[in-house]
Write a structure and sequence with these properties.
Mean pLDDT of chain A: 95
Largest interface: A-B, 115 and 99 residues
Low-confidence stretches of chain B: none
Low-confidence stretches of chain A: 1-8
Mean pLDDT of chain B: 94
Structural class of chain B: alpha+beta
Strand content of chain B: 15-25%
Number of helices of chain A: 17
CATH architecture of chain A: Up-down Bundle
Number of domains of chain B: 2
Strand order of the largest sheet of chain B: 3-2-1-5-8
CATH superfamily of the largest domain in chain B: Cupredoxins -  blue copper proteins
Order of helices and strands of chain B: HHHHEEHEEEEEEEEH
Number of strands of chain B: 10
CATH superfamily of chain A: Cytochrome c oxidase-like, subunit I domain
Order of helices and strands of chain A: HHHHHHHEEHHHHHHHHHHEE
Largest sheet of chain A: 2 strands, antiparallel
CATH class of the largest domain in chain B: Mainly Beta
CATH architecture of the largest domain in chain B: Sandwich
Structural class of chain A: mainly alpha
CATH topology of chain A: Cytochrome C Oxidase, Chain A
Number of strands of chain A: 4
CATH class of chain A: Mainly Alpha
Number of helices of chain B: 6
Shape of chain A: globular
Radius of gyration of chain B: 26 Å
Strand content of chain A: under 5%
Shape of chain B: elongated
CATH topology of the largest domain in chain B: Immunoglobulin-like
Strand order of the largest sheet of chain A: 1-2
Radius of gyration of chain A: 24 Å
Distance between the termini of chain B: 79 Å
Helix content of chain B: 25-40%
Oligomer: heterodimer
Distance between the termini of chain A: 27 Å
């Protein structure tokens, strides 16, 4: 493919000299991938700390904390807003796509770098700026916004609607807008790279499922973040320039606000047009990765490669037609609810196909329980558990009752939060040797898995019960409403589980940094895997393949091929003779 | 390791399933005409999805143990890229399951939301504002009087909080209450409004929830079938006092309702 070779040459650039060009303003996709990874790691520690404060407040609302004092109801709402925003944008979107996607997409398709290295650098620094703008919201007058990560107008559009809705809310919107710009640049780069930079022989249908996932995620990002960016700008104008996109005639405390004619539902439509695909932006890379890992560590080809690709494509496609299922109770036409409901249930079909295929991959395999494999199996379990609560919420008639309860919290935390995080953990354990040249400690990895796996269930399973008993989310205290008071024992249990689970994450953090210095030296292909990143040096050289452009002759998951000299055939090995 | 995975996954599955089935935490007893149908569909969905949950988790644990490297069944992995017949089979099965479930619940949704309240329903206007609910009854003239945003003043009591225009003749007999009182076995037409931000009117026992949105008057209906006091609460984040924006829906007999309304009318005069 002449065009591919041309593209590869056009974007080759010399290895940088000097610390700043090499590690700060680097054009190397691998360094940028690491930058995204460490940004997400920082963000997840902040987000986790906020959730810990929330958990403490929920069971001891008036107990003063060291340095922070008593957490007030409005502070609790700020905590949940910032927790959601940080986790969704700066962790779940940043780590799997920006981090691992950046590092491994080019290597897995046999390219020397991303298509637009400068744009790649800019997208990271834009994302970083977004994070830097967000954090000060805690420290400005009034504190961080209390309108939740969904930022429903008019609450988010009126400075007088509550503490935190002043400068804090402006910083929140600006941060998200900046993030969107970074994500859009990244999406363009991922799409172009996948389409134009594949090595000879790397047809689309020979791409690892990880690459398919990053590619589809990038398309979703390109279509979704533009809408959120526009909505954010309109919201900023409503707040500061007197426009009324999202504001009808509203009064706060009997005082007229001067706005009229806008629609609060417009914000919800725009937000969820982004917000629902965002769920898949978070989970698709984890799906791709776990498919890959189940195949590698079952020593077996992935079950139904094509079905997996089509399932991801249909999830991506359908993901844009279901946003209204967040709005069954919003006052939107009840007729549209029926349409949105059918489309949402339809998404269950490709999701179920994927689950069947994961089980099919394990079936008659030869399972190796490494840390990445454990997290991949954990992912499947959590994906199933988070998935089966979906059809409850997707049916408007049941959503009447469950909407805005902890049942929803359990559902989306399991499926887009914890399952995706398990994908990130699996990716870290799996690719760490390639990125840092050393293995992570397996004993610590397994300990981390068991504590996190059981801990995640201990935290989120009881939330289903809490929600079924009508326990409402975003309630800073359960002391006022009688039926919620009765549920306090569940909250106590969840808080204890959260303490243990959060504490066990430091095993991971320790393992990560300790292994960089002290881990066992890694060979080039420690997992005996087949994809291209395992054909090159560890860590890979600046141009990924040391001047040799790989040629691909096989599919990505050729394990236990009969008659082969070893139990895996790499993508660049001699072509497997297919029996006809 | 395979055995530990099997045990842990199976244990988590069985314990959580038991806690669902034991109904230690469950929906409160329904007190509206629609509750039985909704609960029935909830149970159907619960059984179907519960079966999928248990089957998938048990299979995952089982495979982890059975196909572990070095295990009895794992001499070598099978070289297989999948099975189109099986793919087609489970695709069709899931389509039938999901679409079927959806169609089953269609009629309940339609009767709840497509149809408006029948003539003769008891009208109650429910207005949410930070952080209180107000309930307004149109009085003997069956007409709600005009409200004006510029007249809103909560210091003048409930009617003031709504900005009721006393110059409008229709407003003279309007009753505004901090508690929702409704007669049993009558259809209640609820007209939802909000002044400042979005609130949501949630009465768990009635299986009723609907957002109140500034700028919109949303018409809904439900029929209480059991007398008693039912707590309601705001179910849409509305600001710092969200957690204490709750109230009582009091379902009484028709006679008690008429007496209550007449007494409120008398207080006004």
């Amino acid at each position: 493919m002449a065009t591919h070779e041309f593209a590869a040459q056009a974007h080759a650039h010399a290895a940088p000299q000097g610390f700043i060009r090499k590690w700060i303003f680097s054009l190397d996709h691998k360094v940028i991938g690491l930058q995204y990874f460490f940004l997400a790691l920082t963000a997840v520690l902040v987000g986790m700390f906020l959730s810990l404060l929330m958990r403490i407040h929920l069971i001891w609302p008036t107990v003063p904390l060291p340095l922070l004092g008593e957490i007030k109801p409005e502070t609790y709402l700020s905590l949940l807003t910032m927790h959601g925003t940080i986790m969704v944008f700066f962790v779940l979107t940043t780590a799997p796509q920006g981090g691992f996607g950046n590092y491994f997409l080019p290597i897995q398709i046999g390219a020397p770098d991303m298509a637009f290295p400068v744009l790649n650098m800019l997208s990271f620094w834009t994302t970083f700026l977004g994070f830097v703008v967000l954090l000060p919201a805690f420290f400005v007058t009034g504190g961080a916004p209390l309108h939740g990560w969904t930022g429903y107008a008019p609450l988010s559009a009126l400075q007088s609607a509550g503490p935190g809705e002043g400068l804090g809310a402006d910083l929140w919107i600006i941060s998200i807008a900046i993030f969107c710009i970074g994500a859009l640049m990244g999406a363009l780069n991922f799409i172009t790279t996948t389409l134009d930079m594949r090595a000879k022989g790397m047809t689309m249908m020979r791409m690892p499922l990880t690459c398919w996932a990053w590619f589809i995620t990038a398309i979703l990002g390109l279509l979704a973040f533009g809408v959120l960016l526009s909505a954010g700008i309109l919201l900023l104008m409503d707040r500061n320039l007197g426009t009324s996109f999202f504001l009808p005639l509203v009064t706060v405390n009997g005082q007229l606000t001067g706005h009229k004619g806008g629609s609060p539902l417009l914000w919800q439509h725009l937000f969820w047009f982004f917000g629902h695909p965002e769920v898949y932006i978070a989970i698709l890379p984890a799906m791709g990765l776990c498919s890959q890992l189940l195949s590698v560590f079952s020593r077996k080809p992935i079950f139904g490669y094509k079905a997996m690709v089509y399932a991801m494509l249909s999830i991506g496609f359908l993901g844009f037609m279901v946003w209204g299922h967040h709005m069954f109770m919003s006052g939107m036409s009840p007729y549209t609810a029926f349409a949105f409901s059918i489309m949402t249930m339809a998404i269950g079909v490709p999701s179920a196909i994927k689950t069947f295929n994961w089980l099919g991959t394990l079936w008659r395999g030869k399972l190796r329980f490494t840390s990445p494999m454990l997290f991949a199996i954990g992912f499947v379990s959590l994906f199933v558990t988070g998935g089966i609560s979906g059809p409850f919420l997707a049916q408007p008639v049941l959503d009447i009752y469950l909407h805005e309860t902890y049942f929803v919290i359990a559902h989306f935390h399991l499926i887009m939060g914890v399952a995706s995080i398990f994908g990130i953990f699996a990716a870290t354990y799996y690719w760490f040797p390639k990125m840092f040249g050393r293995m992570m400690n397996e004993t610590l990895g397994k300990l981390h898995f068991w504590l996190t796996f059981v801990g995640a269930y201990a935290i989120f399973m009881p939330m289903h019960y809490y929600g079924m008993a009508a326990g409402l989310r975003r309630y800073s205290q359960g002391t006022e409403v009688a039926w919620i008071q009765h549920l306090l024992p569940l909250q106590k249990f969840i808080t204890i589980a959260a303490f243990v689970t959060i504490a066990s994450q430091f095993i991971f953090v320790f393992n990560l940094f300790w292994s960089m210095k002290k881990g066992k030296k890694a060979s080039d292909n420690p997992w005996e895997a087949t994809t291209l990143e395992w054909t090159t040096a560890t860590p890979p050289p600046h141009d990924n393949f040391g001047g040799k452009t790989p040629v691909v002759r096989n599919g990505p998951y050729e394990y236990s091929v009969p008659g082969a000299s070893r139990d895996f055939v790499m993508q660049s090995d001699e072509e497997i003779k297919k029996k006809h | 390791m395979g055995l530990v995975l099997l045990l842990v996954i199976w244990l988590i599955t069985l314990v959580s399933t038991y806690l669902f089935i034991a109904k230690t935490w469950w929906l409160p007893v329904g007190a509206s005409a629609a509750a039985a149908g909704i609960d029935h569909h909830f149970t159907t969905t619960f059984i179907l999805m519960g079966a999928v949950f248990v089957a998938a988790q048990l299979a995952l644990g089982w495979f982890a143990w059975k196909y572990r490297e070095g295990g009895a069944s794992s001499k070598g992995a099978e070289y297989s890229h999948g099975n189109v017949t099986l793919e087609a089979l489970w695709t069709v099965l899931t389509i039938v399951l999901f679409v079927g479930m959806n169609l089953m619940s269609r009629s309940i949704w339609a009767s709840e939301r497509f149809d408006s309240a029948k003539p003769g329903a008891v009208q109650v206007e429910v207005t949410g504002m930070q952080f209180a609910w107000y309930f307004r009854y149109p009085g003997p003239d069956a007409k709600f009087g005009a409200t004006k945003p510029e007249l809103e003043d909560a210091s003048l009591g409930s009617a003031g909080a709504l900005g009721l225009d006393s110059n409008d003749p229709a407003s003279k007999d309007d009753v505004v209450s901090g508690v929702m009182v409704v007669p049993v076995n009558r259809e209640i037409e609820v007209i939802l409004r909000a002044h400042d931000v979005i609130h949501s009117f949630f009465v768990p026992a009635m299986r009723f929830k609907q957002d109140a949105v500034p700028g919109l008057a949303i018409h809904m209906h439900f029929t209480p079938i059991q007398t008693g006091e039912y707590e309601m609460a705001c179910a849409e984040l509305c600001g710092l006092g969200h957690y204490k924006m709750h109230g009582i829906v009091k379902v009484v007999s028709q006679e008690e309702f008429d007496q209550w309304l007449a007494a409120r009318e008398a207080e006004k005069q």
